[in-house]
Task: structure prediction
Amino acid sequence: MKKIYLSLCVAFAFALMTGCQTTDSTTGTTSSPGTAGVPKIGMKLTDDPKRSVPVGTEFVGQRYFSEKFMYWGFVRPEKDAWGKSTRIVMLREEVPAPDRAPNGPRGRDDGTIYLLKGYFSGEIAYEPKSDLMLDVFVLQGYEVVTEHNKPINANTPFWVSDRMYYRNNAAGVKKQGSKVGNRFHEDMSTP
Amino acid sequence: MRIKSYLFLLVLVLATPFAFSQQSEWIVLSGGPALPSWEKQKKVPHDRVWDNFIFTGQLRIEQLKKEIPAGDIITWMVYRTGYVARGKQMGADYVAQIEQSALKWGVNLVWFDKQGANGNELIEYINNGKDRSKIKIKSFDYFGHSNRKNFLFDYSNDLDGVSVVWLHIVDLKKMNRSAFDPTGQAWSYGCHSGDGYVQAWYQATGVKMQGTKQKTDYAARGWPVPSKGGKWNQL
Result:
């Protein structure tokens, strides 16, 4: 009887002492950062280890302006045609973007092709109106090549999990999943 | 019989503090402001004043100070880089002002600078900022820019019209679910969170979040309210 009583006391104490703790058996533990990929020749990794950007200091860029989005436009290495290596970018302006000067509206250079001096910083920016993750291009200078060019049909956004990415589609990149492009024009605007 | 009684009392004395001293953490999170240099030429400029998300965060802190049990922790997490940049542009030291406010309120101020593609400081704090086996997050309130899928701690600050520091719904799964008290609460005072983010938050944390499907209006210099007659929606 004494043993039973003592066992009950110990069990009671143990229950009280552990009752305020929570086991860590639930899901959602911190994920590991993952192994950074190895970039291809002529490419370098970004803040997102799953993606890389071209190295170099001179690129060709075409301005694309829409009130719906904030991105600057399309950029590709000089040696490439519009297509496989084309990126949608945001600019980090070490020099002001061509349409930043106050003597005219933003986007007045829509369709202009530039020779861009600068580089991909490896940063990723989030464009909230489209839910796109974009590469950041550091603008250090530019020259106008031609104006009033037709829009480039080089990018189709696609989804990985619940996140939209883009990939140029001029080279016939296959669509991924059923949500491709469906929500590209959705209003994701911020306050 | 006396030995048994003493033993029982001893057990009670040893166990009682563990049973009744559960400490909780109440987190208030303030995102950063946009920069006037990007916003001044827009039709509807964001963040005409620098402290939309600081002022409202303090309203919540003031409320918590009156309500929470003694011994609980109020942690104020603030996206620092946004206030450094805005302060630099305005010729003011907003970081010092926020630190003074935290001191005045006696809260645990936690700055962070990186979250999203460039780091994981916010999630790291949530998971490991305290001993989460003992100190659970009881409450989480967010004041800042957002859309349906993302909390934008940086918005139109480092770059025009976009974000470089965020907590996207796809990143919520990195949070340790057991860091949260399942009886707790969460509230987003950002735009459009009620239309996707609150559901993802609940899936990730097990805590119900309130938000609105509308934009939120901070102009009244009081608690943010849903615009266009919108409502706060719980999951």
Remarks:
- The mean pLDDT of chain B is 92.
- Chain B touches chain A through 61 residues (CB under 8 Å).
